[in-house]
Amino acid sequence: MKHVICLVAVATCIGFGKADAQDLKDLRALPDTSIVGSRANRPLSIRNVKVPIPELGLSVDYWKHWTRIGFNLNQASFSDNWRDGGINSMAWSTTAWHKSEYNRNDFNFTTEADLRYGVLANENQRARKNVDRILWDNKLAYKFASRWSIFTSIAFESIFAPGYQNAAEDNRGPIITRFMSPGYLTETLGLEYKPDNTFSLRFGTGSARQTFVLDSSIPTNGQVDGVDTRFGVLPGRTIRNELGVQLLANLDRDLTKNLHIKSRYMLLADYTELTNPDHRLDVTLTAKITRFISVTANGTMVYDRTWLFGQETSPRVQYSQGLAMGVLFNFPRQ
After folding, report:
1. Distance CA 330, CA 68 (A)
2. What is the topology classification, in CATH, of domain 63-331?
3. CA neighbor of 208 nearest in space, from 269, 256, 252, 158
4. What's the pLDDT tens digit per position in 180-207?
5. How far apart are CA 294 and CA 261, in angstroms?
6. H helices within the chain, ranges in order?
7. Strand pairing partners for 229?
């Protein structure tokens, strides 16, 4: 009897458990997946949000500038009883070079000034200059290909101080050069080939050059068509005009980390005498010893078809060279 009662009780509990489990499942609420339906009657609220943007004050600078200023000093002295002989001397020279470049889209404007002056003084002798040059070159170009541009330029050349004949002697001779005697103004229109920022080659198919001799006391030093002239300028005149072809090459490159070369070669041929053009080559090598101390070697070669020497009947190549050590400042610093 007891066993029967236990079985009935167990069966009853199982029945109640199943009933409870069934009731809980029926009461389970599924999540509503209809988003639109739940918000169908709600108006949408959209607000414009303004994100604050700070003002940086930035501007584009299309200009670049480079400047080099150098000063060289050479000195030698000897005692009165120095056995090998010698003469006390001092020489100094200064250089100033500046370049500004404007680049925007395909337009380029470049202005470059190269100024040099130096003096040599030996004991018991008059001081005389050993370096003297003024060069100011301006160029406006429009690039129509990756390496080619059409350009127009104007360049001015002259010297600072008077030059004397027989300058090596104590007694100076007559003045043979001075500022604007001669002076050169060259205008050019043509094509420029520039593969990189260190080299350029200009082909000036239309080049005009004016040679000025403003000092009438300058002696004649050459001939044009058999007539004695001053740097090609006829007697009684102060200016000579030429029209011809110009070739101008510029190289400004670091050969090594501490060795720099800057050179400029110009050829100018008058249309009336294309087979006998004028040439000028300027080369400067700068070796950096420390940040500010450098050794500089300069060389210049000139061929002027109108410039004769003494009783000669044909021009010769002129040349000069110098070697000096001094301080050199670069801006911006390198």
Report:
1. 5
2. Outer membrane phospholipase (ompla); Chain C (2.40.230)
3. 269
4. 999 999 999 999 999 999 999 999 999 9
5. 13
6. 2-27, 35-38
7. 222
